[in-house]
Amino acid sequence: MNAHRVMADLRELxxxxxxxxxxxxxxxxPVWREARDWFRGKVxxxxxxxxxxxxxxxxxxxxxxxxxxxxxxxxxxxxPNGGWLDGCLGVLAALxxxxxxxxxxxxxxxxxxxxxxxxxxxxxxxxxLLGSSAAAGSLKIEEVRDLTDxxxxxxxxxxxxxxxLLDKMLDAHRELKxxxxxxxxxxxxxxxxxxxxxxxxxxxxxxxxxxxxHMLRFTGxxxxxxxxxxxxxxxxxxxxxxTALECREIAxxxxxxxxxxxxxxxxxxxxxxxxxxVPGICEISLDQRALDAGVLSAMHGEAREASARIARQNHVxxxxxxxxxxxPRPFDPHLVRLxxxxxxxxxxxxxxxxxxxxxxxxxxxxxxxxxxxxxxSSNGLSHxxxxxxxxxxxxxxxxxxxxxxxxxxxxxxxxx
Length: 416
Ligand SMILES: [Zn+2]
What we know:
Blueprint lengths: L1 H16 E2 L2 E2 L6 H16 L4 E3 L5 E5 L3 E10 L12 H15 L7 E8 L12 H7 L4 H4 L10 H7 L9 H7 L3 E9 L4 H4 L4 E7 L1 E10 L3 E2 L11 H19 L7 E3 L3 E4 L5 E2 L2 E10 L2 H21 L3 E10 L2 E2 L2 H15 L4 E4 L4 H5 L5 E6 L15 H25 L1
Parallel strand pairs: 5-6, 5-7, 7-18, 8-17
Antiparallel strand pairs: 1-2, 3-4, 4-6, 8-16, 8-18, 9-14, 9-15, 10-13, 11-14, 12-14
The structure holds zinc ion (ZN).
The site of zinc ion has 5 residues, from loops.
């Protein structure tokens, strides 16, 4: 049973690279290297070998009748005290796809390439999708040159310890462009509660959300909490709070059953932060996400308008500071259909959902057709030791993913 082999591999990897607190495969560190060494052994068992690109991404190639390639993969790195499925599920299911074809007498009609992206999590240096963004050519070297971890180790030194030269990382883009890629397929756990709430094992991912991330600074006047009558206050916190509530309304208004959007105020700083003072300054973060670029831009515009109106009503000023943004990355419609077929054949139903978290797959969207498949997450939990998927759901999802790989090979070979 193919799915059982994948689950056995996952358990073996977890046993080697976890403590009672969870997975410890922090990118560029010794446990991550051990996970990759173990993986190299698994690849050698099927007669193949691992090659590393200029950004530290690991590649395995199973040549087929055509150079046209189907790429399968995800990432082996984890956050500290992470789960046993995040990332490695996609790598080990991809390994099974190669194992099946390597054992066959006839070569596959197209080349199969497995990729284990380096440092997807960004848990140590704060930059997610490091390896895949280098391969995609979107990484800005100057933005990461001075990054350090909590111990003060510089990214550039951690990379060098692993044979990666920061200034050569973007060579990985040239190396990616040499591949005649017809598709990129990534299996991942959902990391959220949606599939579980529908009691579905497997979902078809239609794309990754675009993100607008800003800091909003409201400036009023700090004043004595006893002597200043309410109508005469310039309370920066209340203006921020009212804006946060209205942003939730905006998100609710733009959510439809098939196309939910989200927004989050995750940071609130007030000054002077004294129980007897009206807050004179309040800074909040605003993170808005949607799959549709038009919707995202409308949400963003409405939030700006609301903050300005609410600031006026509260006699305070508001200033916006851009933090980060990324466009929505919708997946390839044809591959989404193949994914629906594969999931439908295995489970009788193929729920579609967007991905709120970003994934390496998002970096591949500008360069080749992409689709992802999700396995349900128990209690919606991830990035913690409780992360899990019910065993029957895991098995079904792995089978659906292997079907998707076969369907994609057939599709890409027809268009080769
Ligand atoms: Zn992941």
